[in-house]
Amino acid sequence: MFFRLATQSLWHRKGSVIVAFLAITISVFILLAVEHIRHQVKQNFSSTISGVDLIVGARTGDINLLLYSVFRIGDATQNIDWQSYQNISQQKGVAWSVPISLGDSHKGYRVVGTSKEYFTYFKYGQRQVLHFAQGHVFEGVFDVVVGAEVAKQLGYKLGSKIILAHGTAQTSFSMHDDTPFTVVGILSPTGTPVDRSVFISLGAMEAIHLNWKNGIRLPGKTVKLDELTEQYLQPKTITAFMLGLKNKITTFHLQREINNYQPEALSAIIPGVTLSRLWQMLSSVEMALSLISLMVLLAALLGLAAMLLSSIRERLREIAVLRALGMGPWRILLLIELEAVLITGAAVVSAFLLLMLIINGWGDAILANYGIAVSGNLFTLSNLYLCLGVFASGVVIALIPAITAYTRALHSRLTEN
Amino acid sequence: MTVSVKNLQFQYKANAKPTLSIPEWQIPTGASVFIYGPSGHGKSTLLNILAGILPCKQSEIEMGGQRLDKMSARQRDRFRARHIGYVFQQFNLINYLNIIDNIKLAADVAHKKVSRHDITQLLTALQIPESVWQHPAAQLSIGQQQRVAIARALIKQPDFLLVDEPTSSLDKNNRDAFMQLLMRHCEDRDVTLLFVSHDEQLQRFFEHSVSLESLNQVN
Question: What are the subcellular locations of this protein (chain A) (predicted)?
């Protein structure tokens, strides 16, 4: 009957109850969504690269090197000499090496010049290798492999002809339209920048720049395909390279050695270390997001408290009646708490279901539009704690009206005046 | 059950002039007592003390053999729930609960098991039409509400019934009908009835009547 008293009381004031309920539902939804996406982004982020021991580029900040070599953000200030690459990759402890050459783009997607080894040694997530959804690695000079998103967004299939642009601007006026490429491979989605990359061979990178000097195509010259021999296409410089070591213990040693490499100023970074440093830089944004959603939640809960508090004024007579029936002041405190708990509980459950619905219904759309892979699993321990935390805060904040009701009940008289 | 009061002294604030001072007063078991007097002379204070809402530690207040003045607040609440029925001037019911639930709530707080049959029987006896049983209390006429208030007070089979000017918002016909119902049900159940009002005309319904001024030694 006590429970029925609370539910009927809420039903009686359904207008303000629904508003309070919606406010809390929305704020809990925001909180859950932000936390969930934050978690997912962090997971996506830290799984962008794995299985690579060192990334080497021209002397620069380690975060900058990571950004352009892995995330395809920004540009390298300088290239490194092919000879340096050769020297370092032929050292004893090196198991494998993959060169990367950047600088061109295709409709906003970065072009990565690399070797076939990229598709063998580059790993992401839990040491997952890249898979070909269709086709295979580039064989000929004008073969191209595209990431999943590139293929999806631009509608490329095996055999599609594409033209690369010089430079990395989204709209480029200088096109490599004298040297069209053919799509020979499409990669499976990874949720990493690989999805947004266009891969060609290092030789192809050289070939399309044969008639170019200082970013301008030399007039009157065309590439004669039969002239393109292996030797002719030997690159003179690359942007960066990735290294895998035979023995991980030698990582720091080799890193120090590369940083002190005499013929040229180089930087070597350990991807995992730099990734976590980069994430720390982003953590203030992450904190701000969490803080904002917490504030929204607090506002909604205070709204609930205000709603209940103003209801107490209307309910003084009701309190007097309950007292006359023999209900103690503690029971009346509990009654107000129960009402708050019912609203908060219903709101938490609704917010949870709403988020689940959205993630399951629109998860693919979120991945396609924002590149965030959201998993449908909301039943995590941290979400449980979050919901319990909201619930507990609701109980605590509802103490404001509940204690008011308690004191009113304590001083309530069995008369009108 | 007897009510027996000795040396009742009550003031709202320490060192203030006492509101009530009753040297000795008794109500025999099953009696119906009418207390009249103008408003503001302590009628409601007396009811609040006897109901255990206002603590009155320096006095001897015995109700049905139990000393109210020696009980804790919690014990007084429990005593009120189990043994005392209370009817207000008006607005006796929880507005948003229906009639049946209002009555159930009283039994529930008193921890008394009550069947639906008990409730409907009582409602019928108090002439509440079945058509309104499921209605929220707010939809009933004042006369109906006051009768439901009696039903609610009686459902837990109290030993005492404290009634505070229940007829003040009823017209004469409704008032007399209400009084007759109340008196009959109290007699049937052997409830000790204490009824306060400023309306001396109601005296005729009671076996005992006393003016508060003669009872209260303040002044």
Answer: Cell membrane
pLDDT, tens digit, for every residue of B75-98?
A: 999 999 999 999 988 888 999 999
Percent of chain A with pLDDT over 70: 90
DSSP of A107-120: TTEEEEEE-TTHHH
Encoded amino acid at B33, one letter: V
Cβ atoms of A63 and A274 within 8 Å: the answer is: yes
Cβ contacts of B76 within 8 Å, gap of 6 or more: B52, B53, B55, B68
CB–CB of A321 and B93 under 8 A? yes
Given A5, A11, A321, which is nearest B92 (Cβ)? A321
* A190 pLDDT higher than 70: yes
Contact between A91 and A84 under an 8 Å Cβ cutoff? The reply is: no
Contact of B152 with B93, CB cutoff 8 Å: yes
Q: Which residues of chain B are within 8 Å of residue A414 when distances are taken between CB atoms?
A: 44, 47-48, 51, 53, 86, 88, 162, 164
**Of the candidates A11, A325, A413, which has its C-beta nearest B105's C-beta?**
A325
What does DSSP assign to residue A98?
E
Question: Do residue A414 and residue B88 have CB atoms under 8 angstroms apart?
Answer: yes
- Asked whether the beta carbons of A254 and A93 are under 8 A apart, the reply is yes
Q: How sure is the predictor about A58, in pLDDT bands with cuts at 50, 70 and 90?
A: very high
Instruction: Please tell me the distance from the alpha carbon of residue A61 to that of residue A80, in angstroms, as a whole number.
Output: 15
**Residue type at A285 in one-letter notation:** V
Question: What is the average pLDDT value for chain A, to the nearest integer?
Answer: 86
**Residue A189 three-state SS:** coil
Q: Write out pLDDT tens, residues A334-350.
A: 999 999 999 999 999 99
With 50 as the cut, is the pLDDT of residue A37 above it?
A: yes
Which ranges constitute the DSSP H helices of A260-315?
271-314
pLDDT in tens, A393-406: 999 999 999 999 99
Residues of chain A contacting residue B101, judged by C-beta atoms under 8 Å apart: 1, 4, 8
Q: Name every residue in A having a CB less than 8 A away from some CB of B.
A: 1-2, 4-5, 8-9, 11-12, 317-318, 320-328, 412-417
CATH topology of domain B3-215: Rossmann fold (3.40.50)
- Residue A170's alpha-carbon distances to A104, A108, A378, B112, in angstroms, are 10, 4, 37, 79
CB A141 within 8 A of CB A103: no
Helix (H, G, I), strand (E, B) or coil at B147: helix
By the 10 Å C-beta count (0-12 exposed, 13-18 middle, 19+ buried), A141 is classed as buried
Give the chain A residue nearest B152 (alpha carbons). Answer: A325
Instruction: Report d(CA B166, CA B150) in Å as an integer.
Output: 10
Strands A212-213 and A161-162: unpaired
What is the pLDDT, as a whole number, of residue A99?
94
Rounded to an integer, what distance in angstroms lies between the CA atom of residue A72 and that of residue A357? 33
Alpha helices in chain B (DSSP H): 43-50, 73-83, 99-109, 116-125, 142-155, 172-189, 212-215
Q: What's the pLDDT band for A417 if we cut at 50, 70, 90?
A: very low
CB contacts of B97 in chain A (<8 Å) are 4-5, 8
Token pair belonging to B69: 């003045």
Q: Given the cut 0.90, state whether the ipTM is greater than it.
A: yes
DSSP state of B136: B
